[in-house]
Structures are given as C-alpha cells and as structure tokens.
Amino acid sequence: MSEPSSQLQSDLPWYRYRTASSPFFLAKKLYSNKPSTPFRTIAFFPWSDESLKTLWGGSLFTPDAFSQWKVMISKWSDAVAVSGDHCVYVFFIDEPRTPMHISLPQIESTIKPLPTDSINIAWAIQPGSPLEPLLVFSHMNLLYIYNVEKKGVSSYLRGHGGAITSIAIHPINTNIFCTTSRDYSVRIYDLNRTLRGTLLNPPWPPASVPSLAGAPHGLHMSEAEGTGIGQCLVVLMGGRSGGHQAAVLSAAFHPQLPLIATCGLDRLVKIWFVPLDTNLNTIRREDKPLFSSSKIHKACVLSIAWLGYDMLLTHCTPALMKTSINQESKDTFIETGQMAIWRWLGIERFFPSGDHEQIVLRGCASDYQESVISTLPLPRENVQTLSTILHLYQSPTHDPIVLITRPGSSSILVYNVVHLQPRKPPPFLVDQVDLVESTQNIHLSGGLGPGVHLETMPWTLQAGMDDSSQHKPSDCLMRCAMGKGGTTIVGASTEGTLQIWKIKRQGNHSSTTP
User: Fold this and answer.
1) pLDDT tens per residue, range 177-235
2) What is the extent of the structural domain holding 29?
3) Where, in residue numbers, are the WD repeats (predicted)?
4) How many domains does the chain have?
C-alpha cells in the first residue's frame, strides 16, 4: 500500500479500514463458578448517555432527568446478559463486580424442546421508570420480566402455544416488544399496560364452575395470562390467509414507521402494518401482511433486521439443491447459507412523503417486490444440525457491523456492511449461443465470482488467550455480540466462558496488548 493511501486510512475509524489485520485484541475471559454449561444467548446493555434524547421521541429529556440517566448508565453500561440452559447471568465486563444469577423455576411443559431452543434475552425500559432497566427473557413458551435494579421478577406472561424463538425490542419505544414462536405466530406486548384482572367466565349449566372455553381465534385465554406488567396488544397470526406457515424465527421493528418485519422456517419474509394503539382493551388480530416473499432465500430464514428506511438484512441456512432440473434425477448437493441485503420497493405506496396518513393498509401481489442489493455466501458449516448465527450491531454514529459465529468454530468473522460488494447484474443475452452459455453460468445466489476483493474479506477474531495451550478445541463459540459503542465484542462458548475483545488504540492498529 502506498504512503498516501496509508495516511488516508489512518484518519479513518477502525470500521472503515480494509486491511487484513484485526482491529480487536482478546482482553480477558470470564468464567462461571457453576458447573460447566454452554452459554447460548448474549444481550449487551444497549443504551448510552445520549439515548435519552431519542427514546420515546425525547419526551423524557430534561436536565434533571438527564443527570439521573447518566448515573444509571454508568452503573449498567458494561452489563452483558447471558443465558445458560436453565438460568440467566448478568456479567460486568469492565468493573470487578459479582455477576447476577437468575434461576428459572422448574416447570413441567408439554412442549418438546429442540436442540436449537434456548433462553432468549433482551433489555427493555418503561417510560414510567426509566432508571430501572428490565430484562425480558423466555423459557419455552413463558416470558419473564426481571427488574435488575430491584433484583426481582416484575411479571411473567404466557400466550404462545409453542416455544418462543426470539425477542425483539422496539428501538425507540422500548416498552414495546414482540416474541416469535414455533406456533407460527408473533405476539406484540406493551410493558406500560397491566394484565386483565379477574376473568368473568360464566358457568355453563348444569355446571357450577366458570367455563374454560376460550374466545374465537384463541386471542384471549380462558385463564389468566400471567401476573404483573405487560399485556399483549397484537397477534400476527399464522395460516393460509397470509401469515407464516411454519415456525417464526425472528422479527424486527422499524425505527420510524409502524412496521414489523418477520421471517421463518417457511422461507418467507413478511412486513406487517402494526399501529400500536394502546387505548384498545382488546387484542388486535392481523393475518394479512403488506409484503411477503419467498424469493429472497432458498432455505429457512434465520434472522431479519432493518438497515435503513426501506433496506433490510436477512440470512438463511444451507439449502438442499438438485444437481439437475431433470425430474428423474435424485442427485443433490448442499448450497451454503447466504446473507442478503435487499430493498422493499413498495414502501412509498403505503407511506408516501408528506401528510398522507392512511388508516387501513392492505397489501396486494404487486407490492411483493424486492430488490437484492448485495449477497454474501456464508462459510460452509461442519455441523448440519446447527446453523450459522449472525449478529448485527447498529448505531447512529457507526457503520453497521455483522458478526458471524459458525457451528463447531472458535472464531468470529466481522464484516462491515458498507464494504460488501453490490450484486452483479445478470449477463446481457445477445444471441442464441450466448444464451446457452450465459444460462449455464447464471448463479441465482448472486455470488461474487472467482475474484476475491479485499473489501469483502472479514476480520477474524480467534478465541483463546495468547498462550495457545489455554485454548480448548471443544471450547467453541455459540453466540457473539458487540456493544459499548462498537468498542467491545463478547463471545459465549460451549464451556461456559465469555471471551472479551477490546478495540485497539487508535493509531496503533498492530498492537495486541491493551
């Protein structure tokens, strides 16, 4: 690299560098005193001092509230919530503080757990008590709301008929969150509301006890939905009318519009209109999304996230493909998973510029249009029963960063989304000969081709301390997350340890010591 080019890159933040050397160093390991159990999910404390200016539209921002908010942030800014098989920990990665341990009650469930099931975790805050952060976590089909400041359970909720697969918090209104489930549905909750009181179920003669018959569509339960804060507002139903036809695996709220994007086992990506009217006393049922597509990925879609106003990022599992279009041929091969960045082309029809508010929005087939901007083949997986896990870090002052962990691997791949190559256009077909040759060379995956570009090469973070003898081959990373303004990465391992990477000092990117 030439000297002017090196000088130009030295003025850039670390995530704009395109060098092969990693900008992070492995700082420390944290161990649990409990028997070795795999850590399955991670959730960084997501807010900073400046977050109060944007949360709930800045309605809570005052000088006094801001000073109290900063005290709370200084206490919890280095907190990382991690889940095991039957418990939740809160580690403090910078301060020498005793980790919090939350044990889940042993509850008999008729739901059969799968190897991929885990305790999902997310952080939330109520506008009525912004100085008391909450942990929202799930176990099978039950939800728990835990007040980390008071160290007690504020609520437990139920409603799903299958295991909960993910929890998503609204980025602005953090009292709103949703859960996805294997029962094909998505439920949206509001922590500002409390559960219904005594259920007035009349007895059916000749019985003298209240009837347990439920309401139509199964929205309201015939028994109590739990205790404490939090009430379900909207249920995105599954089924042939327009909902998911298999397990829903991930969801993401739009930061500005009343939209939520979902994806699942049925290869479908959907975008729903969800006006969150908190004045209603009944649960709203929705079964017709504004957008639905099965053309973005060839296999199960594991995650979804909004990158911008109309741009989304998704990733899928490996796909089993036939080697020939011949119906009699049974030869197959496994195509690697894929990460895709794509744009929803129909957003302007539903939310045009200006003051054109629409009360009722309904999608149609012509709105099911998307434009794939970039695709990235994911690393080949050694364990077919597990899939590559993707974590997206976003910040208003930071490029989107993608962290990838692979089954059976002890490393993390770090990509800057801005550096990904655009998808190559299909070849221009001139004549019949070119048509045959071009058809043979077309790849629906939109791969980058044989040329390897420096911009698409990831940074690699390797687990284990500097002394290689301290690294166990079986100590593989399950999940990872980025936090603290993009300066810290935490990886959770199968041996119950946390690997913590810190950003290197600016201007000394070759150093490997703090």
Assistant:
1) 999 999 999 999 999 988 765 555 667 777 777 766 655 555 555 566 778 898 888 99
2) 23-37+386-415+456-464+473-514
3) 157-192, 241-272
4) 1
